[in-house]
C2H2-type domain-containing protein
Amino acid sequence: MKMAEWKCQDCGKVFKTEQDLLSHELEHVPRYECAVCGEEFKTKEEAYLHEVGKHGRPPATDPVPVKRPA
Ligand SMILES: [Zn+2]
Ligand SMILES: [Zn+2]
């Protein structure tokens, strides 16, 4: 009997468990990081609102997507 394979639709990498695949897929999601505290957000807007709301200032630079090594 063949083991079930969990394959990443983005890069084709194969994992033994669904859990491994799910944690891997997070690496493909672009994130925006707060320059002050490093908190991560899904959108640039969220990151901006966080910096203004929490740190009381607009970010000095645009939040950039954080690309994690696969
Ligand atoms: Zn992948
Ligand atoms: Zn922050």
